[in-house]
Amino acid sequence: MGVLVCGAVFAEEWPMERGGPSSSGLAASALADDLHVLWKYSVDDAAFEATPVVNGDTLYVGDDHGTFHALEIKSGDPVWTRPLEDTGFLCGAAVTSTALFAGDYDGTFWCLARNDGTVQWSVALEAECYAGPILHNGAVLVTNEAGVLTSLRQSDGAENWKYEIEAPLRCAPTVVAGRALLAGCDQKLHMVNAESGTAVGTLEIDSQTGSTPAALGGRVFFGTEAGTLYAIDVDQPEPAVAWTYRDPLRGQSIRCAAAVDERLVVYGSHGKSVYALDPQTGERKWDFATKSRVEAGPVIAGDRVVVATAKGRLYLLDVADGSEVGQYDAGGGFLASQCVVDGRVLIGNTDGTLYCFGDREHVE
């Protein structure tokens, strides 16, 4: 793959870690079969372990040494950088037309101006953040390692409410029909009213988890440390299990979010495999061996699935049968999910490199 320069009018956005409040990992655009490295952006002595988010023609991502970066998608050129002292970012942000919201590994939650990265406000939380925030009706919902889901007012960071469990929360609070869904390390799925913070219902699962639920209509999908993929119906007074799936031969931990559309739910595991299941029945449609564990949630883009591994390999798979369409070996490691906008894959590496992959047709 050569380094190319691309140009386009950007019609899509990826404002939250898994694309939006439903955390579906579903891109609006398709991907070409022959992806090329359009540009690389590198930083010294830091790693990218957070998913980029996109607003307009700019992407935003924090590194693990506490600097936020805003880059032009068409060129990879920096728009601004904002170093923040004594901190670092291990999860994606959320972005609006005016503001950028992100939690760090020291337990501080930040609001930065989108146009130049200046600090608008910050709030001290109880513990570190390992999942990106969700934007909902003027509030920003954020989880932390102390097991607290907090609703903050976007305008000034004032607290609206808190919901607490007795174990860490390492997932984003996916929102479905006004309810925040939390898959917790207490071996339960929690449903919380996203406006008031009151508990709506809970459901016991087979193990702890930090996987962010992916929603399709009134059903959510997530995996556990026991290697079980759950499909749970949440559009009713109490959540109910629709089906579960566990590979009988390689039932290792599932630590990344799934991606889902009407055709399939797809996820990766520590068993060095990717699985695609029927979202209605749980029937196994195909699987693909990745040769290293999958920490980053896959993305569905048209007729392709994009999967990144912990050893720095990016795969492009066919939705229908899981056959390999293409791959790129970056080295390092991909620990954060990619985002896909306007036919481009944006992903950060633990070696401090941010990649933009795209089609030759994007080249001017």
Walk me through what this model shows.
The chain has 364 residues and is mainly β. The protein has strands at residues 36-42, 53-55, 58-62, 67-72, 78-83, 94-95, 99-103, 108-113, 119-124, 134-136, 139-143, 148-153, 159-164, 174-176, 179-183, 188-193, 199-204, 214-216, 219-223, 229-233, 240-245, 259-260, 265-268, 273-277, 284-289, 299-301, 304-308, 313-318, 324-329, 339-341, 344-348, 353-358. The strands form eight sheets. It has a four-stranded antiparallel β-sheet with strand order 1-32-31-30, with no helix packed on it. The radius of gyration is 19 Å and the shape is globular.
Strands, helices and their partners?
Blueprint: E1 36-42, E2 53-55, E3 58-62, E4 67-72, E5 78-83, E6 94-95, E7 99-103, E8 108-113, E9 119-124, E10 134-136, E11 139-143, E12 148-153, E13 159-164, E14 174-176, E15 179-183, E16 188-193, E17 199-204, E18 214-216, E19 219-223, E20 229-233, E21 240-245, E22 259-260, E23 265-268, E24 273-277, E25 284-289, E26 299-301, E27 304-308, E28 313-318, E29 324-329, E30 339-341, E31 344-348, E32 353-358
Antiparallel strand pairs: 1-32, 2-3, 3-4, 4-5, 6-7, 7-8, 8-9, 10-11, 11-12, 12-13, 14-15, 15-16, 16-17, 18-19, 19-20, 20-21, 22-23, 23-24, 24-25, 26-27, 27-28, 28-29, 30-31, 31-32
